[in-house]
Amino acid sequence: MNKNLFLFWVCLSCCLFSSCYDESNKYGNGLVDSVFRNISTDTSTVVITSVLIDSLETSGKGVALVGEYTHSIWGTMKSSGYIPYTRPSYSTDIDKVVILDSLVLSLAYGSYYVGDTLQYQQFSVHRLKEKVVLNDNNYLYNTSSFSYETEPMATCRFRPRPQGVDRLEIRLPDELGQNLLTRFHQRDEAVSSERFEDYFKGIVIIPDGSDNHSMLSFQVADTMSTIVLHYHIVEEQVNEQQLVFSPNTSTQFNHIDHDRTGTLMEPFPTKQVEIPSESLDNRGVLFGGLGWFARLEFPYLNDIMKLGERVVIESAMLKLYPELGTYSETNALPDSVYLYIADENNVVTDAVTDYLGTQVQGGTLVKDDVFNENTYYYFDVTDFMQQELGTIGINKHNLQLVLNEDSYTKTFKNMTFGDRQSKSPIVLQLIYKIYESY
Known about the structure:
Elements: H1 3-19, H2 26-32, E1 36-41, E2 47-52, E3 63-71, E4 75-83, E5 98-115, E6 121-127, E7 154-158, E8 167-172, H3 174-185, H4 196-199, E9 203-207, E10 214-219, E11 226-233, E12 239-245, E13 253-259, E14 274-276, E15 283-287, E16 292-297, E17 310-320, E18 338-342, E19 348-351, E20 364-366, E21 376-380, H5 382-388, E22 398-402, H6 405-410, E23 414-418, E24 427-435
Antiparallel strand pairs: 1-24, 2-14, 2-16, 3-4, 3-10, 4-9, 4-13, 5-8, 5-10, 5-11, 6-7, 6-9, 11-12, 15-23, 16-22, 17-21, 17-24, 18-19, 18-22, 20-21
């Protein structure tokens, strides 16, 4: 090898070797003494307030909720289903002789129920004295009611079979059946198209007695939850007929009562109330049928900005742990809960969306079916926290934790969870980057 060429390679190798350990080299210093730090924390303060919606729209939902259910913490819920009926078409010739066979209320089970359906239930059916009409805004609510006869037309004691049979059938009085058949057959003006709902205003189904331990749903549609008048025409051969009264699906609604006696909610108003978690033994609550949702606030989020010249949130995950003992096989947790963004006046301005930004993000339910100790919902709230960091005053926002509309208006699905002082505290996991200088 050429001697000069050999010396060149030796010198070059020495220079390269020396540069990797040059303590004054800025690039090398940057690898060891970074200008930023990554911080992970799960102790951020989350303030929880439970809020009661003034009233829930329960008319025109296609479901009658009937029964009684007692929650382990929040008291007893009782729901009654109001069902008006429309006039059916009657075509039997007036010259024929007709004989009543029976009048039957045929209720079609829905898929939802809560409580112990292995025990007997008792319903009473009452005739309405007052015609059901919608409010000026075309709705009826869980607080709406109309007068009805004190004495029931019928009572029924039964063991619920919401998953086993299609219908619950209740025999109504023959007197009412004969009255209806006679009036229709004689073309009485009282049951004409214009006057029928004034004559027969409908029914209300009420959980009756102390045997009720569950809340049942019944489908309300043209062919479901009907009243069927069975009759036959007197001829040489048997000629059985049916007159089917279909429910008025627009004016059917559910009235719901909540007995808070002996619960943490008892001292508070029943409308337009906000209860901090400290007043509910460090709990927040969501409750369908009753209208509870929760507001989540993050009052000290801006404190992390004091830790450096610049702070950037890299990720934020929110975890909520349902309280043990508040859910069970007979009171299952909601499949999803949702977060909406609201301003200082609790007016919703946006939603926490999925990673595509196109749909409202449903909190993912992770179940611990073995020990039930690590069941939780989680949300990715990174975008919200990034936008919220640094805001003050009227520009600050909160998150509203809610059920979907169907769960509020068609079910009693519920979820009870704890604040930071509870046994299973809510967790906000933050990962953020602190720049010492920039």
